[in-house]
Amino acid sequence: MSEFLSCPKCKCEYTYRNGSLMVCTECFHEWNPEDVAETAVNTDELKVLDSNGNPLQNGDSVIVIKDLPVKGMPRPVKAGTKVKNIRLTDGDHNIDCKIEGFGSMGLKSEFVRKA
Predict the structure, then answer these.
(1) Torsion of CA 80, 86, 88, 94, to 10 degrees
(2) Three-state secondary-structure class, residue 17
(3) Nearest one of 96, 98, 68, 95 to 80, comparing CA atoms
(4) How far apart are the C-alpha atoms of 106 and 114, rounded to whole Å?
(5) Could you tell me the sign of the dihedral formed by the alpha carbons of 46, 49, 55, 58, in that order?
(6) What pLDDT sits at residue 43?
(7) Which helix (H) or strand (E) holds 36?
(8) 49: CB partners within 8 A, 6+ apart
(9) 34-53: per-residue pLDDT in tens?
(10) In the 3-class helix/strand/coil scheme, how is 72-113 assigned residue by residue?
């Protein structure tokens, strides 16, 4: 770990050690470097929110909130369709799932709500 860490509050690189704490010279924020290292490890998780702002996790069930057209299919995925056992992914379509009658597909989290 570097002797001088940037401030977690304002990202200033001009910090100094005061005992066991680090102090920012611009915003005067004080923090424990060990606490910041622990939270940095925990923030690597994928955060996906539904249309209402509720966090989604792998294995959750969601409900589609509007009709979604599907390329190559004669009919759309209807609003109110319940999708079980979702998997979260990184990218534009951040939910992988299987929808009965359609098969495997990717959904955007902004078009679903947690069931």
Answers:
(1) -30
(2) strand
(3) 68
(4) 16
(5) negative
(6) 47
(7) helix 33-42
(8) 55, 56, 109
(9) 876 555 544 456 789 999 99
(10) CCCCCECCCCEECCCEECCCCCCEEEEECCCEEEEECHHHEE
